[in-house]
Design a protein that fits this description.
It contains 15 helices and eight strands. By secondary structure, it is an alpha/beta fold. It has three domains: 54 residues, no CATH class; 165 residues, Transcription Regulator spoIIAA (2-Layer Sandwich), CATH 3.30.750; 86 residues. The chain has a four-stranded parallel beta sheet with strand order 3-6-7-8. About 12% of the residues have low confidence.
């Protein structure tokens, strides 16, 4: 599929193609300086023309290079969706229909369990409002379940399962009773995955197929991607609401609270519903109770005047409760 088409469909300003680890770290460090952003390899953008020349394969050979501190620019996503923690890079399965081996040059690197636990402990101590962890990898249980089982035991040993809810992708291979018990004790949300292609594409594949699972993806299709670890399904806003929604989040995370409130007052009912409680907490934490009251009254008025289907009527009592706390 075309990365540019995907970027346009989701209404994003920037995207990264091919190997994204180092370009993404550069983006976090450079943004919002657009002159520096333009020079990031593998970047695509709807805002300006950038070079599509892909960088040479520069992978993180040591996970210590990855920052444990998470950028405050993404607080809203971290608190409402979850925070990513990387456990491995690349894939060792070499499925014939998969592009990942070409992207990662068949390199597979596992992060040490000690480093992962240290990062989780750091997040627990410093980020009190974060409760969801998504382990980033190709699949959590490759190349064999032994590594991830040991990690599960360390999570439970350090009582981190009482602090966070965890989720990750798993190959649908046989799980031992011990493995399943530890997943359950750790409160894992399991996403079964086998491939990223539709049946019609796989049926038209002319070369012999090698699958990393015991059964063909065609047979496992109805079991794959049964759910996502996100609290809300993605529903695209119209272009202007999307732009204002992202600007409101950015301004709030940067401490530009008056700008964030101005954007909130000028966006549609769906973006307001998604960001209201987050923005309210940001304002009250900074002592901006007048602004918190202003956006609350505006949200109630918007629901009363714009919610013809009654989708957000139950929010009014919640907003009134928030107002009573001021």
């Amino acid at each position: 599929m075309s990365p540019e088409s995907i970027l346009e469909y989701v209404g994003g300003d920037f995207g990264i193609i091919s190997n994204a680890a180092r370009p993404m770290l550069m983006f976090v460090n450079f943004f919002p300086d657009l002159e520096k952003v333009k020079r990031i390899p593998n970047l695509i953008s709807q805002q300006f023309d950038v070079s599509k020349k892909q960088s040479k394969s520069e992978l993180f050979t040591e996970f210590d290079l990855l920052p444990i501190e998470k950028s405050k620019d993404f607080n809203h996503s971290f608190e409402t969706i979850g925070i990513p923690v990387m456990t491995s890079y690349g894939c060792c399965m070499n499925c014939s229909y998969c592009v990942e081996p070409k992207i990662t040059k068949n390199r597979f690197i596992q992060r040490s369990k000690k480093d992962i636990i240290n990062e989780l402990v750091s997040i627990s101590e410093k980020e009190k409002n974060i409760s969801e962890i998504f382990f980033v990898n190709t699949e959590f249980n490759i190349p064999d379940p032994g590594y991830s089982l040991a990690l599960l035991k360390d999570i439970i040993k350090n009582q981190l399962h009482k602090r966070f809810r965890f989720s990750s992708q798993f190959l649908p291979i046989g799980f031992s009773e011990e493995y399943v018990n530890h997943l359950s004790r750790a409160g894992f949300y399991v996403i079964l995955t086998c491939d990223s292609f539709f049946d019609d594409i796989l049926k038209g594949y002319t070369e012999p197929l090698f699958f990393s699972s015991p059964a063909s993806p065609l047979e496992l299709n109805k079991y794959i991607e049964l759910g996502l670890p996100f609290k809300q399904h993605f529903k695209p806003f119209n272009t202007e609401d999307n732009r204002i929604f992202r600007k409101t989040i950015y301004d709030a995370d940067q401490g530009h609270l008056e700008k964030a409130c101005h954007s909130f007052l000028n966006t549609g009912i769906q973006p307001k519903a998604l960001i209201y409680d987050y923005l309210f907490r940001k304002l009250t934490d900074c002592g901006e109770n007048k602004l918190a009251k202003k956006i609350s009254i505006d949200f109630i008025t918007t629901i009363q005047n714009k919610d013809s289907q009654g989708l957000y009527a139950d929010r009014i009592s919640m907003i009134q409760y928030f107002l009573s706390l001021l």
